[in-house]
Q: What sequence folds into this?
């Protein structure tokens, strides 16, 4: 009894405290219930059309989960073409093989991340590196800012060497911007990381860290040094993005004095054809391949609708309508590659849009223009002209654009899935078609000849150890198609992609071989003249990993004897002058 009385007394004294606790718990439960109710209301799908407002009314819905992590997971496959840094890794890249000496490397790269090729609504999109956290970017930028000329006081922000690239900027104009067709700071970061991988793999086996001449006095690190290193040869097209990509990659590959001594040479063609360029047959093959793609697009009404919706939302100016899915994909990548929110638009009237046809008489040739791009979208647009709505071309398989009244709403993840999956499917079908390989053979003939000539120099004791071709996606499309290299992405080439030709000499028999590595993966066995028993399998490292080496004479024989066999010709002139391409089926 005494204990019970004591408990009642304590409870009476703290009655107010218990009331406050109970009241707080009740208020907390009430607020939690209200938030849950509001969340359920917002996530309930609306009953509007597919291209109407997003279910939240202000931002894109992601089904049950709209968190940034779920967005990244859903679009991870599409972002592979953006080349996130985690994707840039050292895998099967060689450098040191047991019993073999690395004689030289020829590396073909695509430039890094760039702004779109068409004017897009990119407000709020950050194309830079987050928070200055990339140490390689900080080191590169600091080097360029701090290394100044003792003679004039100028810095390295512009190339001051005499030549075709005199006055070219070495860095993008803005840190966060997405300038039209220009390299971004994210692109600089990608190539610096690629160069760092190449440094780990090739710098020491090739002796690139050694001084060019030990007896020479120390090198003055000025932007207009007259040193000429023949160990490293650099070719790039006359585009800022390829020029800046080349120098960024070489900065992390080479010592500072060799980087300053570089002489950059110009390629007048995106195919690096070096004289073997004009080829009407190649243009005809590409046009027929594009016509097949147009037919596939016409069969997909859902893709056409999505293409109009996304294009009308993202693209700023479309006076000739929207008929090219790759142009819309390129604009969409500005959003996807930089983790931006899917865009929305307000209701406004659209004028009647005219269909577009391609001028079959205009040859698709490489025209060097700093603000021009290499993408399939651009190559298709080069040969487009307007026709009236009642033109027979509209009925003969060319995508046409219907007049539409734009709705208010947002680009939804489902729209992205529809367009990007179609683009991936078309890319795969195109890459598997015979016209793709035949066109690649014709367009890359000059480049393959150039590569083989440098291979012969490397095995004959020439000082050249590293050759870089800084190009575009079409550069690598032509080359991989000609060699028969097939990737999981079809004809899609990711930013900062690399294709390496590694040349080796046997320490036992003094025989010369080479291997081909695409984005870190050994693809030597995919090449027709290297597959199966035509190559030599050797041990790559102490863990027992293997590497395939192809004899140098195989590629020489291919170039001189078998190259034009698929085209029923014996030389470049004959193959390019054929009246009609070989007949083949559709996709």
A:
């Amino acid at each position: 009894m005494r204990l019970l009385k004591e408990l009642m007394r304590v409870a009476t004294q703290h009655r107010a405290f218990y009331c406050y606790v109970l009241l707080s718990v009740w208020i907390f439960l009430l607020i939690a219930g209200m938030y849950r109710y509001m969340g359920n209301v917002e996530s309930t799908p609306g009953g509007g059309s597919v291209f109407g407002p997003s279910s939240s009314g202000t931002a894109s819905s992601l089904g049950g989960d709209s968190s940034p992590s779920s967005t990244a997971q859903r679009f991870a496959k599409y972002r592979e073409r953006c080349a996130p840094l985690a994707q840039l890794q050292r895998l099967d890249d060689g450098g040191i093989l047991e019993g073999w000496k690395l004689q030289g490397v020829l590396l073909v790269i695509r430039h890094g991340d760039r702004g779109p090729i068409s004017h897009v609504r990119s407000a709020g999109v950050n194309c830079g590196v987050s928070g200055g956290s990339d140490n390689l970017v900080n080191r590169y930028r600091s080097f360029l800012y701090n290394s100044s000329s003792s003679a004039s006081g100028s810095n390295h922000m512009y190339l001051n060497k005499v030549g075709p690239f005199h006055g070219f900027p070495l860095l993008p104009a803005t840190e966060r911007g997405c300038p039209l067709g220009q390299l971004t700071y994210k692109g600089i970061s990608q190539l610096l990381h690629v160069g760092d991988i190449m440094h780990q793999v090739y710098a020491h086996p090739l002796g690139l860290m050694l001084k060019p001449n030990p007896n020479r006095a120390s090198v003055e690190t000025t932007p207009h040094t007259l040193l000429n290193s023949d160990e490293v040869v650099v070719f790039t097209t006359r585009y800022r993005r390829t020029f800046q990509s080349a120098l960024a990659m070489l900065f992390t590959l080479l010592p500072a004095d060799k980087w300053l001594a570089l002489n950059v040479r110009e390629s007048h063609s995106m195919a690096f054809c070096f004289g073997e360029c004009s080829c009407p047959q190649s243009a005809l093959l590409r046009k027929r391949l594009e016509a097949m793609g147009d037919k596939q697009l016409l069969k997909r009404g859902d893709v056409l609708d999505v293409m109009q919706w996304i294009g009308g939302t993202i693209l700023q100016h479309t006076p000739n309508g929207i008929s090219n899915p790759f142009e819309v994909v390129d604009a969409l990548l500005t959003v996807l590659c930089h983790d931006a929110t899917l865009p929305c638009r307000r209701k406004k009237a659209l004028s009647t849009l005219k269909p577009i046809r391609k001028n079959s008489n205009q040859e698709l040739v490489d025209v060097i223009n700093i603000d021009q791009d290499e993408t399939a979208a651009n190559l298709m647009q080069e040969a487009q002209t307007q026709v009236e709505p009642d033109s027979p071309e509209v009925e003969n398989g060319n995508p046409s654009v219907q007049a539409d009244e734009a709705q208010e709403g947002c680009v939804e993840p489902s729209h992205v899935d529809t367009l990007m999956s179609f683009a991936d499917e078309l890319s795969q079908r195109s890459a598997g078609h015979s016209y793709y390989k035949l066109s690649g053979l014709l367009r890359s003939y000059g480049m393959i000849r150039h590569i083989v000539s440098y291979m012969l120099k490397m095995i004959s004791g020439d000082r050249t150890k590293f050759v870089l071709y800084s190009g575009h996606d079409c550069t690598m499309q032509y080359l991989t198609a000609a060699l028969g290299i097939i990737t999981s992405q079809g004809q899609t080439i990711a930013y900062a992609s690399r294709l390496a030709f590694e040349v080796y000499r046997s320490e036992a028999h003094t025989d010369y071989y080479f291997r081909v590595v695409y984005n870190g993966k050994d693809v030597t066995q995919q090449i027709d003249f290297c597959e199966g028993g035509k190559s030599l399998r050797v041990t790559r490292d102490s863990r027992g990993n293997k590497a395939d080496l192809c004899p140098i004479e195989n590629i020489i024989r291919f170039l001189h004897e078998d190259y034009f066999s698929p085209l029923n010709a014996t030389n470049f002139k004959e193959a390019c002058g054929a009246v009609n391409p070989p007949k083949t089926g559709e996709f």
